[in-house]
């Protein structure tokens, strides 16, 4: 059996005991440690504007994590169609991208322990507004999708009343 070289000992000392690694934030995946820090990231999603995934706008949340577990800079990264800023989006795709960016911001707030500062009633009002828009679009279509959205609207109204 060969003995570890001094280079191996130095590398082990720099990396440290991996069992002492700090936990990654919820929903995050860790990258490699470099110089006492690593990136942690959460892939939020992408908007399918092409059959080529690499040509689709993607949203990723990235943070630098220090060896003590604290987070430094947190960025919401928008990778726009292989660097093209002229990638056209339909209104539906633009709303989808907006939703992904909102999810990333919410997750960043969770990682930092902050919140949007909205009271539960405000959050319900925002959800009600979004569902009301969906209901107005669905009620003219065949089928009963609008009935399900209407039931959700009623449930949100009931929940808001309980909180008041």
Q: Can you give a write-up of this model?
A:
The protein has helices at 6-15, 91-112, 120-138, 145-163, and strands at 29-30, 37-46, 58-66, 71-79. By secondary structure, it is of the alpha+beta class. It has 2 domains: 13-116, TATA-Binding Protein (2-Layer Sandwich); 118-164. It has a 4-stranded antiparallel β-sheet with strand order 1-2-3-4, with helices on one face. A hairpin with a 4-residue loop joins strand 3 and strand 4 (71-79). Helix 3 (120-138) runs antiparallel to helix 4 (145-163). It starts with 5 loop residues before the first helix and ends with a helix. The mean pLDDT is 80.
The dominant shape is: flat
- Structure annotation, total helices: 4
Radius of gyration: 23 Å
**Structural domains: how many:** 2
Largest sheet: 4 strands, antiparallel
So what's the CATH class of the largest domain?
Answer: Alpha Beta
Q: Mean of residue pLDDT?
A: 80
CATH topology of the largest domain: TATA-Binding Protein
- Tell me how many strands there are: 4
Strand order of the largest sheet: 1-2-3-4
Question: In which range does the helix fraction lie?
Answer: 40-55%
CATH architecture of the largest domain: 2-Layer Sandwich
Topology pattern, helix = H, strand = E = HEEEEHHH
């Amino acid at each position: 059996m060969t003995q570890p070289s001094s280079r191996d000992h130095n590398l082990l000392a720099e990396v440290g005991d991996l069992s002492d690694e700090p936990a990654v934030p919820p929903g995050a995946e860790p990258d490699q440690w470099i110089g006492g820090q690593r990136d942690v990231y959460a892939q939020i999603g992408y908007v399918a504007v092409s059959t080529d995934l690499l040509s689709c706008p993607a949203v990723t949340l990235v943070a630098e994590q220090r060896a003590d577990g604290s987070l430094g800079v947190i960025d919401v990264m928008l990778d726009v169609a292989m660097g093209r800023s002229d990638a056209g989006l339909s209104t539906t795709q633009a709303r989808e991208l907006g939703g992904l960016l909102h999810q990333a911001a919410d997750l960043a707030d969770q990682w930092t322990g902050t919140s949007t500062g909205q009271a539960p009633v405000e959050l319900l009002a925002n959800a009600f507004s979004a569902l009301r828009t969906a209901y107005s679009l669905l009620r003219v279509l065949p089928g009963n999708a609008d009935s399900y959205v209407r039931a959700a609207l009623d449930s949100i109204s009931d929940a808001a009343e309980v909180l008041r």
